[in-house]
Amino acid sequence: NRYASVVHQNAVNILDKVPVILTEIDAFVAQGKILEAIDYGFGFLAGFGIIIPQDPSDKEIEEQVQKTLTLLCTIGLENISSLPELKREDILAALQIMTPLGFLLYSTAPRRCLLQSSRSCELTLLWGNSVMAPQDYLGFCCALMMIQQEMRTAYDLAKVALHLASKTPVHITNSLIKDIFGCIIQPWYEPLKNTVQTLKEGMANGIESGNFTYASLNAVHSCPAAIYSGERLSLVHERIRKNLETINRLEQPHFTGWLMNYLFAIRYLTTFDCSDLLDGFDEESWLESAIETEDYHGLSIYYLTRLMCCYVMDDEMAGKYAVEIIPY
User: Fold this and answer.
1) Does the first or last residue of the chain, that is N or C, have fewer Cβ atoms within 10 Å of its Cβ?
2) Beta-strand (E) ranges in 87-239?
3) d(CA 44, CA 48)
4) DSSP per residue over 13-69, as a string?
5) What values do phi and psi take at 109, rounded to 5?
6) How many CB atoms lie within 10 A of CB 214?
7) Contacts by 193-197, CB closer than 8 A, 24 or more apart
8) Counts for the chain of helices (H) and strands (E), in that order
């Protein structure tokens, strides 16, 4: 905090502050303080006149999505890569802060995420491409997938975004891009096994670029992708073990709880010894923290994993989990 204060006090302009603002947001996330991270980021965005309502109406969401979609269709997917470079420093600074908040909203306030992702993409389409453009396009693709609208357009735009991202392979956002594509978009049009490789690459991108938050997210999400693609549970067990080691090495304890939920599936469906992986993990404390911080994504993983396992094994607990998952 002391070093961040020095930057805030001595920065010549807002662009100089952006790296430390992003670091502070990541610090909140690493501590499981998702709501604080969101409030902190949007506090700076308010200075640019960008306000994303906490609880947008259906009409607000629909108008923003359609506005962005119309602009996208007017420009044409084939012309996205050749848009001019974004020159406005204020818009660039706003996008650099605004864009990474997308997943945090996805996991806590999905309706607000729809509006934010659509707005970020609109700003990029209006003002030009930057290093944030691939992430902004992927965010809008995610929004279209969430509302089940123009899904083929979303997939085609995502491929354009991946192409743009490949031009800066070590950029800090590439790990997030792979996570969004592998989790939300790719499974609709490609074999599920492809998503495992995408998320594995995203984890490596995050480690290489220093984006440990999204390196950890890719580590988490590659495990259910492996399960759903039919990977042997013995291999999934080993994947979880290695990815837990990675998350612990990167000091991202909040995501340990997410990954432990998939370890539940291994413990429930097999006789594999998982006791060493459970050392030091307090499931009850994690669950209380997730509820307190409104970590809807983590909570949905918690209940859905248990619901699916119990349903497959005709366990009467399936009914209990089916009711408890509804709010998330």
Assistant:
1) N
2) none
3) 7
4) SHHHHHHHHHHHHHHHHHTT-HHHHHHHHHHHHGGGT----SS--HHHHHHHHHHHH
5) -145, 75
6) 28
7) 193/229, 193/230, 193/231, 195/225, 195/229, 196/222, 196/225, 196/226, 196/229, 196/231
8) 19, 0
Q: Which of 307, 269, 310, 301 is nearest to 283 (CA)?
A: 301
Q: Output DSSP code: residue 171.
A: -
pLDDT in tens, 234-293: 999 999 999 999 999 998 888 888 999 999 999 999 999 998 998 888 889 989 988 888
3-class secondary structure, 129: strand
Q: What number of residues does the chain have?
A: 328
Q: Taking the model in full, what pTM does it have?
A: 0.81
Please give the structure tokens belonging to residue 205.
């991108």
Query: Chain centroid to CA 133: how far?
Result: 16
SS3 label, residue 85: strand
